[in-house]
């Protein structure tokens, strides 16, 4: 009897080819389109054509001769992703909705619906891979590994950094062994309507959003000061030996930059500190400087944003970060560090960032990550993910 797999079909080329490949591998395939939260007042027109996407997914399913359904997850998406985003921005953090969308929607709500349809697995068009090997005695159950996609330009393992063993045991990523050009070639050969379709941009299953308008739905504009911090007023933080730090050094090297108005010069006004994020350059509305201005810190309580001038400004870079104990997530639970342990890994703090050499230190209050090289734009609310070779081991929310 064929194993049944429900494929999340977004109306794009990747999920279209994923459905085809699973069909070729002998699975009984069902296509499912997820309709998530949508607000036309904040979505850039033409960048969120969900009806068109749904129709494209339906046409691909018809071409492949597989059953197709549309699932309305608007309520769950609003509750788990949109409300979360508002809360994070209001608290002065910058969320990553795509990571949460995978954990909370695709591999939770969607997965549960697929199981109700009798599915053994769910399939997606992510550029990543999963495999299993036997655990050490006495744990006879398999250990699932999340691996980077073969196409290093498209690897999407970072977006799945919050998945757990149970979720990975139900996941199939058929295009993880392929490159994007190879995927398009297959779609073209099959004459799929999605073969030449551009990749979607913006929020997971929503599209491009005008962030200020989006945030202003719940976070009201509030005038505040813009303060320019001279480079010489930024304390220098350098990890002389990133592999051997004392507890005191860990705390110092991982601290966020904090400034006061007295540390710099007021150069303008903004409409709300919660609208800005570390490293931001565009949308500041302040001119007259030879080199670009960058956000180096925000204070949502005092409603102040702090800027630095130039790409080499010290406020943009720091050597470490901290993850609270409750925000640490190990995909490989068998490899989690105990208090007092440390281990070298490669890590990234944003999608598409090259992996960076670092050392993880597990302390009583949480996890410190100290990098060999200074990291630009470490942003509270974002996810740090650590790897061993091409396997994603764990992740956590940056404090």
List keywords for this structure.
single chain; 399 residues; alpha/beta; Rossmann fold; SH3 type barrels; Elongation Factor Tu (Ef-tu), domain 3; 9-stranded antiparallel beta sheet; 5-stranded parallel beta sheet; 8 helices; globular
Distance between the termini: 48 Å
Low-confidence stretches: none
Main beta-sheet strand count, sense and barrel state: 9 strands, antiparallel
Specify the structural class.
alpha/beta
Question: What's the overall geometry?
Answer: globular
Percentage of residues in DSSP E strands: 25-35%
Mean pLDDT: 92
Number of β-strand runs: 18
What features would you describe in this structure?
The protein is an alpha/beta fold. Helix content is 23%, strand content 28%. It folds into 3 domains: 4-215, 3-Layer(aba) Sandwich (Rossmann fold), CATH 3.40.50.620; 220-245 and 254-314, Adenine nucleotide alpha hydrolases-like domains (SH3 type barrels, Roll), CATH 2.30.30; 317-397, Elongation Factor Tu (Ef-tu), domain 3 (Beta Barrel), CATH 2.40.30.10. It contains 8 helices and 18 strands. Helix 1 packs across helix 6 and helix 3 (74-90) packs antiparallel against helix 4 (97-116).
């Amino acid at each position: 009897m064929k194993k049944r797999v429900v494929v999340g079909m977004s109306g794009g080329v990747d999920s279209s080819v994923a459905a085809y490949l699973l069909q070729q591998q002998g699975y009984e395939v069902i296509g499912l389109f997820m309709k998530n939260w949508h607000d036309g007042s904040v979505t850039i027109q033409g960048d969120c054509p969900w009806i068109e996407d749904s129709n494209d997914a339906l046409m691909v399913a018809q071409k492949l001769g597989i059953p197709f359904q549309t699932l309305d997850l608007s309520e769950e998406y609003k509750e788990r992703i949109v409300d979360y985003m508002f809360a994070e921005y209001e608290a002065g953090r910058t969320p990553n909705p795509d990571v949460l969308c995978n954990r909370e929607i695709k591999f939770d709500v969607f997965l549960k619906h697929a199981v109700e349809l009798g599915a053994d697995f769910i399939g997606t068009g992510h550029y990543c891979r999963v495999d299993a090997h036997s655990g050490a005695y006495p744990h006879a159950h398999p250990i699932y590994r999340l691996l980077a996609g073969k196409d290093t330009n498209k690897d999407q393992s970072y977006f799945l950094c919050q998945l757990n063993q149970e979720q990975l045991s139900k996941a199939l990523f058929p295009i993880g062994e392929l490159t994007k050009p190879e995927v398009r070639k297959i779609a073209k050969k099959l004459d799929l309507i999605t073969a030449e379709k551009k990749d979607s941009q913006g929020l997971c299953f929503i599209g491009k959003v005008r962030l200020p308008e989006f945030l202003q739905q719940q976070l009201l504009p509030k005038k505040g000061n813009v303060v320019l911090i001279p480079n010489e007023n930024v304390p220098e933080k350098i990890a002389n030996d990133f592999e051997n730090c004392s507890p005191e050094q860990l705390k110092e090297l991982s601290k966020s930059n904090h400034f006061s108005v007295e540390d710099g010069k007021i150069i303008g006004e903004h409409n709300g500190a919660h609208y800005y994020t570390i490293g931001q350059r565009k949308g500041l509305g302040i001119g007259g400087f030879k080199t670009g201005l960058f956000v180096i810190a925000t204070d949502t309580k005092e409603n102040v944003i702090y800027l630095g001038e130039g790409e080499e400004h010290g406020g943009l870079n720091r050597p470490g970060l901290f993850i609270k104990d409750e925000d640490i997530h190990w995909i490989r639970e068998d490899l989690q560090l105990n208090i007092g342990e440390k281990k070298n890994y490669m890590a990234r703090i944003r999608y598409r960032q090259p992996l960076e050499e670092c050392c993880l230190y597990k302390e009583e209050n949480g996890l410190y990550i100290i990098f060999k090289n200074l990291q630009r734009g470490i942003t509270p609310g974002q996810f740090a993910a650590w790897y061993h070779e091409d396997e994603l081991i764990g992740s956590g929310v940056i404090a």
